[in-house]
Design a protein that fits this description.
- The protein is 49% helix and 16% strand.
- The protein is built from 2 helices and 5 strands; from the N terminus they run αβββββα.
- A hairpin with a 5-residue loop joins strand 3 and strand 4.
Amino acid sequence: MHHRTKGTGANPLRRDADRTRTRMHAAFALTCLLAVVAGFALGRAAWTDGHHSAVIVARHRHVVTATTIGETAHRAGDRPSSRPVTVATATWHYPAQRPHTETVPVPAETRKGDTVRVWTDDDGSAAAAPPGRADIALNAVALGAAAVAGIVLVGGGLVAVRLRTVDARSARAWESEWAGVEPLWSGRPHPGPGAGDD
């Protein structure tokens, strides 16, 4: 037991397994802190990159006035979880007098002959609107949160595996020590060769 009491203020009842558990809990706390720092850094980088990309995209997007030439219809969204989109065939001129006719998203109450606003690229083809601040922020938060969750889950898993190993080793050591101490403590004869012989 002398090896367990080394160090200033060491507790003689504190086992190596207890010290390992303390170190593992401290390591997990440090992992959580590092996860938050990494998540913040990644989220900030995603925000900066997203904002920069949005500025570049916005330079090549233009809003034109188009006239619907067909009835509205419903089209499935881009993702399985998104709602159907109301679309209609519309025509517009961009750049200058270059005509374009495409099926574009329109408000639900749009009728044939109504005017709608359409985002186009430099060639005048229908294009997605440049990402807004909300989309950029949502993407940055999602990336940061995913980084935090991933690091915490991996770190927590490694700590949990290590603690299970320590607990199993501690249980085996306890059983071994108890097998030697219990007969003395209870007053029963120690089992072994020749036990019970007269």
